[in-house]
UniProtKB/TrEMBL annotation:
PANTHER family: 3'(2'),5'-BISPHOSPHATE NUCLEOTIDASE 1. It catalyses: adenosine 3',5'-bisphosphate + H2O = AMP + phosphate. Pfam families: Inositol_P. This is 3'(2'),5-bisphosphonucleoside 3'(2')-phosphohydrolase. It comes from the Bacteria. The keyword Magnesium applies. The keyword Phosphoprotein does not apply. It comes from Stakelama flava. InterPro entries: CysQ/Inositol_MonoPase, Inositol_monoP_metal-BS, Inositol_monophosphatase-like. The lineage of its organism: Bacteria, Pseudomonadati, Pseudomonadota, Alphaproteobacteria, Sphingomonadales.
Amino acid sequence: MNGAGNDDAALARRIADAAGAVLVTLRQSGLFAGKALGAAGDRVANALILQALADERPDDAVLSEESVDNPERLERRRVWIVDPLDGTREYSEGRDDWAVHVALAIDGEPAIGAVALPKLGLTLATDTPPALPSRNMPPKMVVSRSRPAPEAVAIAKEIGADLLPMGSAGAKAMAVVRGEADIYLHSGGQYEWDSCAPIAVARAAGLHVSRIDGSAMEYNCADVYLPDLLICRKEEASSLLAAIRRIAATTSAAPAKP
């Protein structure tokens, strides 16, 4: 890869684009199917991303879902956090709602990010964040295809939002950035690579991003588990966070079922 002088955001976009193109070609090749296709996609995209970062940013650390974690990253200010294939299941099933995440955390902040949606021919990144479209009426909330967060379902009912089931975390987050949805509330468990790039892009686009208790998203931690997140319009964040607290309090106060 040429262009070591390019800035980090442009590099993130180029790498995400390249990994996405390889994944599309691999799926179209017919060489693999089902779980074998997903495994091959994870492996090939990860190798490409790691090699690109080694060539272009050799002094930076990397945290990837598909690589053994190196604790030396905890001593670095700059850490690339990547998910080479977010939505492996969707990719292996021939669906469109999968993504490639390439992010750079600086001092624990999600500073740079690119999320490629290869089957849509689209990459959203922090260097050129899109303008937010008009809000949907009624509002739409993206949720997991298989395990929608109970808080999300309860809040959707309370505010009259339509649920929009979708695959990968990146696809769901970018649905909010693109205006296809208005809220992404997740509490079912994720890891740093699931959200770092999407959060960086969403924040650059002017959206509210936080944990569901309102606290900041922190990255490059020893424990890479990040169980929840909220992405929404800034003007709606306070009311949604209050609703989450109210629902959590009601749930904790309810008597246990026999």
